[in-house]
Amino acid sequence: MTIIGAILLALILALVLILAVAFKSDDSSEASDTSSSSSRGGAAIALSEGSGNYKEYSGSGDDVIEIEQPAGSQEGWVEYGFESTRDTYNSFSISGLDSAGENTGDSASVSLDEGSEDQGSFWLNVSGSDRKTEEFEITASGDWTIRVHPAADAPVYTSDDTITGNTGEAFVVKGSTTKAHIKYNAPDDIGNYSLRTYDPELEMMTIDMMGESPYDGTGSVRVSDGGTPMYFDTMFAGEWEVTFK
To answer: Polar residues: which segments have biased composition (predicted)?
Structure first.
């Protein structure tokens, strides 16, 4: 091989390598668009749910954060994780704020007498109100992680399913039913919880409140064939079960 031929071969190999690296970089950029994160200190908490397209925020202690609206829609499903940094009484809350700094009602809160970790989810902008959540006000005695998903990422059940949990959870139920059998057992027999049914198309929201623990009873709900967002909201971590009838 001549010297000129060797130089040309080296140049061709170098060009192929550069193109390969650039192509791989483009693939990585496309993959990263499905989720992104923003840290404000504290240890990020691994969440058990939540594949799909989301924006993740993490931090520690009290804070107010501006959030991006869910991809493709203003309606969203929000996961959260909390881990206390102290051994005594622990509390964690998220409150949605609109552009004027007013509370939108998109919120979650939990008090932990025993244990120091909690994970759950709640709805974002599904109540039919024109006031959209643009910030989260966070009160926390520890580290936290929040993921904002499109509403389509939420778990989906049918009216024949039994749904269980031990903290606040948001989910979709499809079918046709008017009753929900609820069992709930909180630590220290403290009952403060509700099953909320959101129906933006009919501009209504039904809230069934129960104020005792342990509880075993039936309440009225409304479930549509197309799917109804629901939220089991509890301020005290405890085991619950919902069966639709």
So the answer is: 93-110
